[in-house]
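Please describe the entry underneath.
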Amino acid sequence: MNSTVRGHINEENLKAFADTLSWLIQYPLDYRDWDAIGPGVARSDLETNNWFNYSFCGPEHTIEAKFAYDNDASWIDLDIFAPEFLCAKIEMAVFIFQSFSVAPFLIKGEEEP
């Protein structure tokens, strides 16, 4: 059975959130996915109800995600349709990615390659 998780995340956390969704269903997210997700979400607009839809299809489960950029708040609204057993994990991810700026930890302060 599937359920919907709704919320929003900080715009700078989009890639980390997409990586998290893919990890939950063992889907190997790669640059081709990001080439679709990044520009798709950038073109979305909450005010005009223009959502970007993306399916994360793992070997056993699928997560359907809808994203809409909120220009006034600089965040991304989410509707995530997923297997019910994943919803608590997705809710936790939404909380983290809306509450904190997630950035790579750099030990020596150097840029990642």
